[in-house]
Each structure stands twice: as C-alpha cells, then as structure tokens.
Amino acid sequence: MRVARVAQRIGLSVGEIRDLLAALPPGPGPADWQRLHDRLTAEAERRIAELHTALDDIRSGRRLCDL
Fold first, then answer.
1. Are 36 and 6 in contact (CB under 8 A)?
2. How far is CA 49 from CA 25, 32, 43, 52, in A?
3. What is the spatial distance between Cα 36 and Cα 30, in angstroms, rounded to a whole number?
4. Do 40 and 7 touch, CB atoms closer than 8 A?
5. Rounded CA separation 5/13 (Å)
6. Confidence class for position 63, pLDDT limits 50, 70, 90
7. What is the pLDDT of residues 5-61, one digit of tens each?
C-alpha cells in the first residue's frame, strides 16, 4: 500500500502506521483519505522543522558537548 510506504519514509514506525490505518473506517471515502493526508503532511512538516532546528544547532558553531 502506497500510504504505508509514504508514512514509513516520513519516519513513522510500523506500529504508528498500523494505528493510522486502523483509524480509517471500513470503506473509507475521500474525506477520510483527506484527513489521513493532512495528518501525514503535518507529521512530515513537524519532523522537518525538528531536523532544521538540529541542523541550526550543528551549524551554530556552539559546543554541542563538553569533553
């Protein structure tokens, strides 16, 4: 299923993907798929923001740890 592959590429675990798909009603309609799309988009954007923050820390020149 393509949705599972996309969710995996975003970084969701198998359990998270299972829960996401289990939340769909039987015979999901366009509105259900749109909600799933919106959740995946929001999660991808959240994770990208976290990575940008980490990258900013790395590039800052500040010490990342004390040895």
1. no
2. 31, 26, 10, 5
3. 10
4. yes
5. 11
6. confident
7. 999 999 999 999 999 999 999 999 999 999 999 999 999 999 999 999 999 999 998
Backbone angles phi, psi at 54, to 5 degrees: -65, -40
Q: Using an 8 Å Cβ cutoff, are 20 and 7 in contact?
A: yes
| Cβ atoms of residues 18 and 3 within 8 Å | no
Where does residue 7 rank: exposed (0-12), middle (13-18), buried (19+ CB within 10 A)? buried
pTM for the full predicted model? 0.80
Tokens of 59: 């590039």
